Amino acid sequence: MFEEQVVVITGAGQGIGAEIAKEFGQEGATVIIVDFNGENAEKVSQEIIEKNGKAGSYQGDVANYDQTQETIAKIYAEYGKIDVLVNCAGITRDASLKKMTKENWDAVIATNLTGTFNFIKAVFDKMTAAGYGRIVNFSSLAGITGNFGQTNYSASKAGVIGMTKTVAIEGAAKGVTANVVAPGFIQTPMTDAIPEEVKNKMIQGIPVKRIGLPADVAYAVKFLASKESGYITGQVIEVNGGMHI
Ligand code: NAP
User: Fold this and answer.
1) Which residue's CA is minimally distant from atom 41 of ligand 1?
2) Ligand 1 centre from 173 Cα, in Å?
3) pLDDT, position 58
4) Does 218 map to a domain?
5) C-beta separation of 164 from 179 below 8 A
6) What's the pLDDT score for residue 51?
């Protein structure tokens, strides 16, 4: 499905991003992984190559504007183009508003919101000049409904939705779509930290009665990133087992 395409995925050293990277690898794409953890990024890249896929990796902090510009310039120099950008890197620093520190606020906004902007900014002109691009950004159920203890995270993820809608409007006439995937409760290192007891309670509240898997999210990303999805832009696909309808 993605033969001859170059796909850049941030935060793909583990969790949902790693699964997305592997799925694109199986579909014939050249997959470029950018992650804070360079070793993990390289590990995922090697896994793809071992399965006869094409991949490369970069260590990078999405919150760093200059470094992002450099990384993207290197990718264009080496691979010639970027067809798909998936902004998956994200962090949480949860605390009730009463206990939320400025550091926790700044860190989450810098990675989740500014990081997404940084990568879009680095590819957008080249995508519009090429007349083709697919941008898939990551929000969260918390960005749609709010969530206790996540003022910073909810704000960053709601911001991603607003940003994506504007990018969609600006890119539409030039063949560039921008959409959002908003996962609910997905089994990854990010959610592994939640106590088992709390997790089981949460699962009871999910209409499909199971935690989501990274593959459930990767499928939605592939759909939005496909050539065939060119008439879908500025949309939010919620992957949450019916937690929010
Ligand atoms: P994860 O397991 O924590 O993986 C996130 C990856 O992003 C990690 O490899 C992390 O590297 C990397 N990363 C963090 N900050 C970065 C930065 N500044 N620059 C580059 N890479 C960075 O998370 P996940 O559960 O797969 O989540 C993926 C996305 O889905 C996130 O945007 C998250 O907000 C969203 N989401 C997840 C859930 C869920 O239930 N899991 C629900 C809703 C939305 P390090 O490990 O080195 O920090």
Assistant:
1) 186
2) 31
3) 98
4) yes
5) yes
6) 98
> Among 21, 103, 89, 81, which residue's Cα sits nearest to residue 60?
89
Q: Is 76 annotated in the active site?
A: no
What 8-state DSSP symbol labels residue 111? I
Residue the block writes with tokens 């993820």: 157
Q: Which residues pair with 239 in a beta bridge?
A: 183
Tens-place pLDDT, residues 53-95:
999 999 999 999 999 999 999 999 999 999 999 999 999 999 9
- CB 190 near ligand 1, within 6 Å: yes
- Distance spanning both ends of the chain, measured CA to CA: 30
Grade residue 36 by pLDDT with cuts at 50, 70 and 90: very high
**Residue nearest atom 10 in ligand 1 by C-alpha distance:** 11
Active-site residue identified among 79, 132, 153, 219: 153
**Contact predicate 177/230, CB 8 Å:** yes
- Separation of 156 CA from ligand 1 center, angstroms? 13
pLDDT for res 5: 98
Q: Does the Cβ of 138 fall within 6 Å of ligand 1?
A: yes
Q: Is 58 in the pocket of ligand 1 (CB under 6 A)?
A: no
* Residue 195, domain member (yes or no): no
Q: How many domains does the chain have?
A: 1
Atom index in ligand 1 nearest the CA of residue 185 equals 40
CATH number at residue 98: 3.40.50.720
Summarize pLDDT for 174-227 with one digit per residue, the tens: 999 999 999 999 999 999 989 999 999 999 999 999 999 999 999 999 999 999
